[in-house]
Amino acid sequence: MSRTQNSLINLIVALIGQGLGLIISFIARIFFVKILGTEYLGINGLFTNILTMLSLVELGIGPAIVFSLYKPLSENDIKKVKSLMHLYKEAYTIIGIIILILGLILTPFLSLFIKNMPDVPNIHFIFLLFVINSSLSYFFSYKRNLIIADQQRYIATAYRYIFFIALNFLQIIFLLITRNYVTFLVLQIISTLLENIAISKTADKRYPFLKDRQAEKLDTETVQEIKKNTGAMVLHKIGGIVVKSTDNILISAKVGITWVGLYSNYQLILNALDLIIGQFFSAITASVGNLGATGNKKKALAVFQNIQFINFWIYSFSAICFYYIANPFINWWIGEEFVMNDNVILVLTINFYIQGMRKSVLTFRDALGLYWKDRYKPIFEVIINIVVSIMLAPRLGISGIFIGTIVSTLTTCFWIEPYVLYKYGFESTIRPYFLRYVKNILLTLMAWYLTGIFNNFLPENTNFMLIFKLLICLVIPNIMFLIVFYRTTEFEYFVSIINNNIVKKITKRH
User: Fold this and answer.
1) Helix (H) or strand (E) holding 222
2) First-to-last CA distance in the chain?
3) 293-327: per-residue pLDDT in tens?
């Protein structure tokens, strides 16, 4: 299949899986909150973030090797792919063991991360279950990533959501029967193990050479490239994980574990939006990497501009939807006592938009292997984020922590990432990128304001009105964007893709 067709099938499978996954996630959260309460919700979010911090041990080896796979896969160089996978397996086995050991060492010191230790039985054992689940995932992921690098992410996605949906159903049933959080986590570990075994066997069937334990030694040039990219990715991993995963840790330490539980409900919504939209970028990453392997920078730039356009459109109306719908939805979903004030929602929305608008740049940066060029950026990002968050948290609470993230992004990632991409990836001037970005922000603000005017006509706090608010948020921004963009080359590009790859195929069958 062509790169476009691979991307489309990856995207379609991902959206279907994510849609079903979201439905079961929101249902499962209702049972979780009603049966176990906010403290367990806070612990769940906090421990997840701590384990994400431990994943720094991975050091960026995975992305570096995946990037090295694009060219040999496009050239069908089986010997080199086999050698890379042999290295990948050894590295990830060691990483899984190290994470397990570090988790065991960290267990006695959990009180350092929680302002007021909750009265939760077996809290240290609960953390150990999180550690086991995390370490298990590393022993098989090298085979998953081979499938993804070969532009067949839909296979890994299908397994992911089949097991995820089955797991959530079982967790709901066992929560109702046992009302026990430990059982909830044990089921998660079993699901992780079975999913990894299933995808491992699928990879073995599709790539029989994986069973061959003998592999040629990698050439010096490839080894040096992996070392160089890994060195750069260490800093990128630190930046990404510290900025994203310290939120709950800082909230727990500076504001309180209950606030972690309150925020986790909004985080679930934001992650759901991010995951759904992210499926588009995940679906095209391998195809962009395949395109990058051809060395056609002019074509890569043209494709990027199309992707940047859809990036803006999707995240703009998603941010508008979140701002106006989040609190009414939380009120309807789990109750008024879980609603946070409008100022917090505004900060969360701005942060969601700013982080989302980086997606197209990061997708191309990763696919083109430009980690080395902005390797020092994450150091400044982390320092600014932590300092500003700690300074503002006592005064502004949870809002201050996320303002820290916004400030760190605007002073580093916002301009450095596109600068590196344009200079080294496309060898082109960056001015058109920022001009387009400013225009898009102004258009977003106009759509945001106009949507607010229509929403103001609706009565507040009625579940029936929630549907109308959602419709307004979906319709107003999209109609506005359609009027502005319907004659542009970017819009015509996506219309032609839909027409050539979906509409024509459907009409041929009938």
Assistant:
1) helix 220-250
2) 22
3) 666 778 888 888 888 898 999 999 999 999 999 98
